[in-house]
């Protein structure tokens, strides 16, 4: 078995994919605006499903997400060799600052922002 993808539930798939393209330089792989979108993120995919579509499939309640709510208990990790440049780009594109990039005791540089849906995004250097 291998980890294939993460799907985040969002209000607007197209808007979210466009945000990730602009803020993080990722490329869309496919978008079905009212249902599903996927970014080209290597062998493990980052995907988004419309909350309205997901709620039509399941009868269980979901925690609300969005910038007006507390951050959900999950984060997306994006790895780059230039965290500061990635961080600056994300902030310029409308991401919300959580913590500025800083060097951790184990040598990794890490910074956090929230995306347009309120999800935490970690921007970090590879652990080498």
Would you give an account of this structure?
The protein is α/β, with parallel strands linked by helices. It has one domain: 2,3-Dihydroxybiphenyl 1,2-Dioxygenase, domain 1. 23% of the residues lie in helices and 37% in strands. The protein contains three helices and eight strands, in the order βαβββαβαβββ. The strands form two sheets. Strands 1-4-3-2 form a four-stranded mixed sheet. β3 and β4 form a beta hairpin. The model has no long low-confidence stretch (mean pLDDT 94).
CATH homologous superfamily label: 2,3-Dihydroxybiphenyl 1,2-Dioxygenase, domain 1
The structural class is alpha/beta
The CATH architecture designation is Roll
Q: Low-confidence spans: pLDDT under 50, at least 5 residues?
A: none
Envelope shape: globular
Domain count, please report it: 1
Order of helices and strands: EHEEEHEHEEE
User: How many strands?
Assistant: 8
The proportion of residues in beta strands is 35-45%
Q: How would you write the strand order of the largest sheet?
A: 1-4-3-2
* Biggest sheet character: 4 strands, mixed
Helix content: 10-25%
CATH-assigned fold name: 2,3-Dihydroxybiphenyl 1,2-Dioxygenase, domain 1
Task: Provide the residue-averaged pLDDT.
Answer: 94
CATH class: Alpha Beta
Head-to-tail CA distance between termini? 25 Å
The Rg value, from CA coordinates, equals: 15 Å
Number of helices: 3
């Amino acid at each position: 078995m291998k980890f294939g993808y993460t799907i985040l539930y969002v209000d607007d798939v197209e808007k979210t994919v466009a945000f990730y393209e602009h803020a993080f330089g990722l490329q869309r792989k496919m978008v079905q605006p009212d249902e599903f979108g996927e970014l080209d993120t290597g062998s493990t995919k980052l995907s988004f499903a419309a909350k309205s579509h997901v709620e039509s499939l399941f009868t269980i309640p979901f925690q609300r997400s969005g910038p007006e709510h507390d951050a959900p208990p999950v984060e997306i990790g994006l790895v780059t060799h230039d965290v500061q440049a990635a961080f600056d780009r994300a902030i310029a594109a409308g991401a919300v600052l959580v913590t500025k990039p800083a060097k951790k005791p184990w040598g990794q540089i890490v910074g956090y922002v929230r995306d347009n849906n309120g999800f935490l995004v970690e921007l970090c250097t590879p652990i080498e």
